[in-house]
Predict the structure.
Amino acid sequence: MLGRIEERGGNFQAAFQAFVKAGQLKPELSAAQVGAGMILLMGGAVDQAAERAQAVLEREPENPQALFLKGSVLLGKQDFAAAVRLFEALSTTGTPAPEVYLALATAHARSEQPVAGRTCLRRRRWA
């Protein structure tokens, strides 16, 4: 997807535009909605990012990327307890991405529970 290529290249404006265009052409394309949401979140548009996550979760309540975006939104809103709960749940499903454990550790640390943050990082070993 063009949006991911632009995002990896650091061209976030072009990535956002590509994600939006893909979402307009095919609204059910969850990856485009989540990609646009993550860029919005990085730019500080927390509420707009939350809307993107919610739109995907209404169709796909178990979508791990949308759940990750929702958890990231919760971090952005400084609702650390809710972020911990969401990332904890996400860490127990399938094979979660390393980002889930890093986000969980961040949520624990921000909620002044650094020991819990270190513990969750120990659960995941990277090669």
